Amino acid sequence: MSVTRFLLSENDLPTTWYNVVPDLPKGLPPMLHPGTREPITPADLEPLFPQALIEQEFSTERDIDIPGAVLDVYRQWRPSPLVRAHRLEKALQTPARIYFKYEGVSPAGSHKPNTAVPQAYYNKREGVQKLTTETGAGQWGSSLALACSYFGLECAVYMVRVSYDQKPYRRALMETFGAGVTASPSPLTEAGRAALAADPNSTGSLGLAISEAVEAALNSGGTAKYALGSVLNLVLMHQTIVGQEALRQLELADDYPDVVIGAAGGGSNFAGLALPFLRRQFDGEPAVRLIAVEPASCPSLTQGTYEYDFGDTAGMTPLTKMHTLGHDFRPPAIHAGGLRYHGMAPIVSALKDIDLLEARAVPQLACFEAGVQFARAEGIVPAPESTHAVRVAIDEALECRAAGRSRTIVFSLSGHGHFDMQAYLDYFAGELTD
Amino acid sequence: MSVTRFLLSENDLPTTWYNVVPDLPKGLPPMLHPGTREPITPADLEPLFPQALIEQEFSTERDIDIPGAVLDVYRQWRPSPLVRAHRLEKALQTPARIYFKYEGVSPAGSHKPNTAVPQAYYNKREGVQKLTTETGAGQWGSSLALACSYFGLECAVYMVRVSYDQKPYRRALMETFGAGVTASPSPLTEAGRAALAADPNSTGSLGLAISEAVEAALNSGGTAKYALGSVLNLVLMHQTIVGQEALRQLELADDYPDVVIGAAGGGSNFAGLALPFLRRQFDGEPAVRLIAVEPASCPSLTQGTYEYDFGDTAGMTPLTKMHTLGHDFRPPAIHAGGLRYHGMAPIVSALKDIDLLEARAVPQLACFEAGVQFARAEGIVPAPESTHAVRVAIDEALECRAAGRSRTIVFSLSGHGHFDMQAYLDYFAGELTD
Which of A77, A99, A103 should we substitute to test contact with B (largest number of B Cβ atoms within 10 Å)? Predict the structure, then answer.
């Protein structure tokens, strides 16, 4: 059997992040101030973010150096493996070559620490004492909790109620790393109190939890700032370490993808893998199909409109031009909590608008079916979010079989499902719906 | 910062297992038949195990080839990383160099697949259709479930009641891999019914679950055989891939241990890491301190007697000479379910008897304290079993600090605690006792 895992040594760790913004053919529409509706300035973001991150958000540099202290943390698990899914290929009887980039090896079990670590680092460097944030499935919250623990920051997490109830062990993980966790909507903020007044049984949403975390930072008297796990340009940029590694690993495999696939909630997982391949295209290499996969029940890219909208529910964040279902959209309580977001990263939205990526929406049951098939073949139980990419990778491989042609498929296995086993129990019990 | 993770490519995977039996200075006392009390023969074991495994159990060869089909599965996650615990060293302000061999990267999250995979493979090759087994914390059960899924075997797991109740998601993992799971004691076997009659609220024990799994295999009409996750010579041998890799990785680190530490329930985790170092000693290299760590509440090596005893509660297995608390010992329901075993592997017991290893018993609370300290420093939440090794590694490092001398400490981080978060919640809530 040919090689299974393509590994790089920590000396091969990329030392810069890739900023796609200067390469975007039509640029990126500016963020607008929520009060004035004028383009926001770096100064407008100072109450929320440290200087270094604001500079990154507005940067027009193509390559941004990764600080040594961040690389030292990345080394704990990076470079992550690129795995050839030999057994899945065999189970599918497909001539396709399937690779997955496995981010579940990180301490928090997903790609999220790739941005949590630099965000915590830059905040610490600028004297911030505490970070507030929201979390959906808990992947982001546990990543930020870990990063804060590494750099000696306090961490307050607003966790979407439905996940808080479904995933007590995700909460336990955050607490093990030293964070405080509150169910959202909570009585601690104005936004939370308003939501509870409107619906005391609210299961919450990412948009609302963002409102609460932002409000908590703004009301901290300057001691706390806010951290966001997706959507922002800087977050997508931090995640490009994933795709950069994958490119080097595919060189080891002497292969190159025809199609690159990632699940997209806020968009950073998809973008982290896809953007470095897009860069090659900008530099004159042949195009690769890039497929962003979202849940059919929260289809911002495939069904949303491309317009200015708030990032949160209460309208406290800047307005960004993005594919959105409306900031008051309430997604159903599906198990892929990390994909329950009304909007999409401006960068991913801009790429979709000029047809540089494909979007596909897939229903929940078909995703779990793919997740179980993957687990039995490859031994890794995917996070519910990641099963969306697995589903489309399998569909593409089955198309190859039907057409009798080989293709190289690379997808992001963004996290493991060790804290999502209730979802699998529900799936086996026939209690999930589309 | 110097290197953090010492990685080997899959081409560096060891291709043989190390069998310590021919190297034991005083040999190994024979197993005795439970009926006749005469030394058992290979034929006596045929109802339970396939030929190839029986040959391995009795083998006097020093090196046994690993089949290619097994190596192909190992490649999914092996070689596992050896990690320099830079951040833990810093947190402890110790001059010691601490390394851990991390087996949590396996699909089931522990070292157990190292033997589950060859056991499933050899059974399949000899036409067995189904494997029965017991599991404590669930690490072994999920490993065998996975291995059976890879090789197309049915899998029936008897799970110790206390873990079945504490760890529903471990059960979900086994079911995701396709296994059937029954709480032990169960009404399905004579041994289980007897235990339930004696105590309807029995929380079970590994010894009893073994009785049930053995009985189910013996009553299968020849279609099923039994698989054991520890204790046997062949199991310890399969685990030596861990220590062999660690030796090669320490060469990369240009270092060599003064002390090697592993948690010991049945003994295979400890032995898997330690035996290849002992081999070096047999071959004339300087001795390394080998420390087997067990829970204070189930102290077979430190408090048990070295005598012939049954491996199970009901007295169905062969008698082996080992350190034992008595086959009717009922360990308290501590969270390190994988260490709740009344006996100890004959090989480990024989080494203890001639002072080739040290044994240490540590209480539960001190272990969780060490586990949390490790998690906050290194980002990995250890399985409760593994916290026993973490505890002693930290103690050794603190001794180095007190004495102002450096030492090289290598320990086995045998698994992650992703399915054990209830234990951490209980610990934080002050609900655990020693």
Answer: A77
Contact B1 A72 (CB under 8 A): yes
Contact A424 B172 (CB under 8 A): yes
Interchain pair B418, A169: CB under 8 A: yes
Pick the CATH number of B5-13+77-109+240-428 from 2.120.10.30, 3.40.50.1100, 1.20.120.420, 2.115.10.20: 3.40.50.1100
Going residue by residue through chain B, which has 434 residues, state the pLDDT in tens, using 9 for 90 and above: 578 999 999 899 999 999 999 999 999 999 999 999 999 999 999 999 999 999 999 999 999 999 999 999 999 999 999 999 999 999 999 999 999 999 999 999 999 999 999 999 999 999 999 999 999 878 999 999 999 999 999 999 999 998 898 788 999 999 999 999 999 999 999 999 999 999 999 988 888 999 999 999 999 999 999 999 999 999 999 999 999 999 999 999 999 999 999 999 999 999 999 999 999 999 999 999 999 999 999 999 999 999 999 998 888 889 999 999 999 898 887 888 788 889 999 999 999 999 999 999 999 999 999 999 999 999 999 999 999 999 999 999 999 999 999 999 999 999 999 999 989 999 999 999 88
List the CATH code of the domain at B16-21+45-65+112-226: 3.40.50.1100
**Are domains B5-13+77-109+240-428 and B16-21+45-65+112-226 of this chain identical in fold?**
yes
Q: A5-13+67-109+233-428, what's its fold?
A: Rossmann fold (3.40.50)
Q: Which residue in chain A has the smallest CA separation from B11?
A: A3
CB of A373 within 8 Å of a chain B CB? The answer is no
Kindly list the domain boundaries of chain A, sorted by start residue: 5-13+67-109+233-428
**Token pair in block for residue A235:** 């977050």
| The pair of three-digit structure tokens given for residue B400, joined into one six-digit string | 């180095």
- A149 CB within 8 Å of a chain B CB: yes
- Of all residues in chain B, the one with the smallest CA distance to A108 is B379
